[in-house]
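Appendix B. Raw example, untouched.
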Amino acid sequence: MKNQFLEAGQIVNTHGIQGEVKIVPWCDSPEFLCQFDVLYVDEKPIQIRSTRIHKGNVLAFLEGVNDVNAAMALKGKTVFIDRTGVELPDGRHFIADLMGLEVIDADTGEKLGVVADVLTPPAHEVYVVKGEHEYMIPAVDEFLAETNVEGGYLKVRLIEGMRTDV
């Protein structure tokens, strides 16, 4: 079951004295987070009055947060987005939806394990698959045969050296 609300970042500090908050985005880019009109904090919707990008973070004025004290009260809080307001490009998935998918060797049908983590280095994502062995699989077409989030599986093509001993 897909969660309707997804973690999207964390309020790490205030910015200035007028209630602006600094959010470290946990999504692909700060621009992605800036497209939303509403964020959710402590399961409550908060309207966004304005956002801007500063040094890879998002600076935001939130409805009802009008001074530094109100902004400081949000420090350390996780912000969530509503997935129903998002259209992802074809072939893209939320990391939260990939976690726990069963991973199958596309050539042999062997069950390799489940997606236990998704690393996000600059070049491309890497799926950490844990089962009897651990695999580090780059999320690129050469290795991904099929991603079926609704079906609960990911089919991959392995090459020598992808398996690490756990």
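End of appendix B.
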